[in-house]
Amino acid sequence: MPDNNVTNILVVGIGGQGVMTATEILAEAAIALGHDAKKTEVAGMAQRGGVVSSHLRFGPKVLSPQIMAGTADLLVGFESAEAMRWCHMLRPGGLVLMNTARLVPPVVDIGLYEYPDDPLAEIKARGYQVHAFDAMAIALELGDVRLGNTVMLGAMADHLPFPAEVLLDAILKRFGARKPHMVEVNRKAFEAGRAAAKMAAEEAVA
Amino acid sequence: MAAILPAPSNSRLLLSGNEAVARAVWESGCKVAAAYPGTPSTEMLEVLSTYPDIYTEWSVNEKVSLEVAIGAAFAGSRSFCCMKHVGMNVASDALMTLTLTGVIGGLVIAIADDVGLSSSQNEQDSRYWGRFAHIPLFEPADSQEAYEMTKIAFDFSEKHQVPVILRMTTRINHVKALVTVGERMAHAASGFKKEPARWVMTPAGAGKRIPLMFERDKTLRAEAEISPLNTIENGKDKRVGFVTSGPAYMHVRESFPDAPVLKLGFSCPIPLEKIRAFAKTVEKLVVAEEVEPLVETELKAAGIECLGKDILPKQGELAPNVLRPAIAKLLGEPIPEMPATPAQVFPRPPTMCVACPHLGVYYTLAQIKNITISGDIGCYTLGAGHPWNALDTTISMGASMGIALGLDKGRAEADKDKRILAVIGDSTFLHMGMQGLLDMVYNGGNVTVLLLDNRAVGMTGGQSNPGTGRDIHGQEAPRVDFAKLVESLGVKKERIHVVDPYVLPKLFKTIRDEIKIPEVSVIITDQPCVLVDDYKKQKPFEVLDEKCTGCGNCVDVGCPAIHVTRREKVVKPSGKEVELQFVRIETSACTGCNLCVQPCAPEAIVHADLTKPIRLVKH
Ligand SMILES: Cc1ncc(C[n+]2csc(CCOP(=O)(O)OP(=O)(O)O)c2C)c(N)n1
Ligand code: SF4
Ligand code: SF4
Ligand code: SF4
Questions:
Q1: Structural domain harbouring A30
Q2: Which residues in chain B are contacts of A64 at CB distance < 8 A?
Q3: Hey, how many other C-beta atoms are within 10 angstroms of the C-beta on B236?
Q4: In Å, what is the CA distance from B336 to each residue of B31, B210, B242, B327, B461?
Q5: pTM of the prediction?
Q6: CB burial class (10 A; 0-12, 13-18, 19+) of residue A15?
Q7: Residues of A in contact with B288 (CB under 8 A)
Q8: Whose CA is nearest to atom 2 of ligand 2?
Q9: What is the topology classification, in CATH, of domain B231-331?
Q10: Does ipTM exceed 0.90?
Q11: How do residues B566-580 score in pLDDT, each as one tens digit?
C-alpha cells in the first residue's frame, strides 16, 4: 500500500465478462467498511469483445480515480493475454491473480496478429508474483460461464486488506436483491475461486 | 428499465456521475427530461426514466430533445436535457436563440465531453458553448459535485432566467463514487404567459434582447466572482499554483498535494478578478484544463501571466502521468522515471455481436467490387474493419446520405462506373438521415441506400426509438413504417425492398440489381439486434472436422463465434499458393442464425448435437 493509504486494484478482461460488475462489488465491500472509493473504466466501446480495464481505488480519501502505471497493488486478469497487457500497471513485486483461459479475438483468428505463447511466463519474467487458475473451467463445472466473475472475486478474497466475508456479503447482497435463486450457486463459485487461488498460491511457492 | 423505489434521503450511494445527476434532477422537482442517447451521457436519462413523477422521453435527436426541454421551461416547469458533446452541434441552433429569450422554469443542459475519445468520432470542448451562447457553465469534478451542482444549477437558472450548462466528461459520467443524496422537492409549473416580445424571436424582437443578454453577462460575471463553486485551496509550495476544473482538478490534487489550487466549478463567465488575485500569491501559474486552452487564452488576454498548453497536451486527459513530468520539467527537477513499459499484446478492437444482423450485409458488400460505401455512425461502423473492409467514410450522424450524393455528383471521370452506396442504421436515419435522403431524391442522386433496421439503438445499448414500437419505459408506442416513410420522401415504390439480412442469396441479388439502376434505391433489412427482446435464438451449429475443407468462407462472415483452429499453406493445381483455415464454432455462443452455413459448400456446418457435453476447447 502506498503512503497515502489508498489501495489500488486493477481488474482487466474483455467486454461481456463481468469485469465492471466485479469491480463494483469490490467497491461496495470497501464502502461497507467505511472507506472512500472511486471506480473507473478505461473501456472502448465496452460492450462487445473490446479490452476493459476497471480501476478501483479505496482508502480514507480518494482523489484521482485512475491508477497510474507502476502503482497497482493487485492485478486481476479475467483473461490471460489481458493480464499480460496490463501487468506493467503493477507496483514492483505486485500480485497477479489470473484466469488461464485464453479468449482469442477475431484479429488473431484471421491471422493479423498472434496470441502470445505463454502469458503466464511473460508476466513472471517481469518479476511479479502470479497465482493462475482456470476460472472458466470452474464456472462451467458449476454450470454457467457467467459465474466466472464470482469465481474471480473469490480468488481475490484472501488478498484484500479486509476480511473475505465482507466481500462475500457484498456479492450475496447484490444477487439477493436481483436474482435470489442465484445466491447459493454464487456462494459456491466464490468458495471455488477462493480455493483455486489458494491452491495456485501453494503451487507458486512449491 | 423497471421502476425502482428511489433510495431514501441521506443514503450514501456509489453512483456514477450520470446516476448522480439523474438523482439531483429528480430531487430538484424537474418535470420534463428529454435526450437522444450518446456515450458517455446515455445513463442520465436511462436512470431518470426509472424515477416516478417525471416525464422522460427518448427524442429523435438532440435538437428536438432541447426544444422539448425549452418548451417545458417556457411553461414554467423545471426541465432537463442531456447529450454527448457532438449532440450540441445538432442542438445548437436552438441554444443560440434560447439565450436571448431565456427561460422561466429552470433548464439544465448536461453535455458529456468524451475526453480521451473512448467512443466518439471526435474530441470537442463543450465549454465553448458557454462563451458562444453567453450562458453560465458549471464543471463538476466527481459524482458528489455533479449531484450538488445540478441542484444549484436549477436554482441558478430560475434566479437569472437563463439555461445552465453542466459540462461533464467521460471521467465524471462513468466514474462511480460516493454520493450522499437528499430529499425530492416538488416544483409546480408557473404556467406559460403570452409575451410575444420575449418568446417570438423576430429580428426586431431579438435585437431588443441582445443588450439584455450583455447586461446579464455582467451579472453572471459578478456571480462567478463570489460563487462558492470557485474555491481556493492554499498550499505551502508556492512555486506553481494551478487554475483547474473538472477531473483535471482531482489529478492536480493527486499529483501536487502541497500546491495552491484555484478550482473552477462555475467556469463561465470566468471569475477573472478572483484568478488575478490568486495569481499574485504564486510564483508560476499553470492552467490545467481539458482539453482546449480556453481559460488560458482568457487569462492571457486579461494580462494574467500563465502557462497552459505550452507545457501540457491539447488532447486527452490530464492524468497524473501527464502532469507530473510536465511540472517537473517546468521546475527543472528530475523527470519522474517511467515505470515498466507495457508488454506487446495484439489489439482487441470491439467486434459486432455473434449473429448480429449487420454481419450478412457486410459479408455481402465485401463480395461486390467497384463500389464506394458512404457509412454512418452505429454498430455498423465496425464494417470498416476486418474481415469486411466494407465502409469507406464516416463523419457524423446522418452524413452518409449527403456524402453519398456528393460522391455521386462530384465523381472523377475515372470513377464514372463506380456505384455509390450508403449504409445507415434505423436510429441514425430517424435522427438526421431522412433529410439527406429527401435531398438525394429531390436532386436526382444515383445512390443505393441500405437502411439497417435492427429495431434498436444498438451502439449505445439498445434503447428505443420511433422505429422500435416501444417508448423509453418499454411500453408500446407508434412504430414508424420505414418502407412507407421512404416512399413518401419520393423513393419509387419499385426501388424499395425489404429483405432479411440472414438470407444471403436474396440480399446479394437485391443489392447487385439495385446498384445497376441509376436512381435512388432503398434496401431495408428487417431483423432485430440480438440484444433486444424480440431476438429469438435458434438451434446452434457446430463444424464437422472431417468435412471442413479449410476454405475459410465462413470466416469472412466475421461472426465472433467462429474460430480458426489451424492454418495450412497448400499449392493449388494452378500453382497458386493458398492458405487454408480450418475452423470450429463456439456452440455455446452460436445463436443458430444460419449465416455462416450458407457459404459453406461442403456442408461442414451442421446443427450441434446438444446431447454431447460442451467441449472446452483450448487453443
Ligand atoms: C450527434 C450524435 N448523437 C449521438 C451519437 C451517439 N451514437 C452513435 S451511433 C448512435 C445510434 C446508432 O443506432 P443505429 O443507427 O440504429 O445503429 P445500430 O448501432 O443499432 O447498428 C448513437 C446514438 C453520435 N455519435 N452523434
Ligand atoms: S448491439 Fe446489436 S446491432 Fe450492435 S453489434 Fe450487437 S447485435 Fe449488432
Ligand atoms: S450460425 Fe454461424 S454466423 Fe450465426 S451465430 Fe452461429 S456461428 Fe455465428
Ligand atoms: S466454410 Fe465450411 S468448409 Fe469452409 S472453413 Fe468454414 S466450415 Fe470449413
A1: 7-205
A2: 247, 250-251, 253-255, 319-320
A3: 8
A4: 51, 52, 20, 10, 41
A5: 0.96
A6: buried
A7: none
A8: B529
A9: Rossmann fold (3.40.50)
A10: yes
A11: 999 999 889 999 999
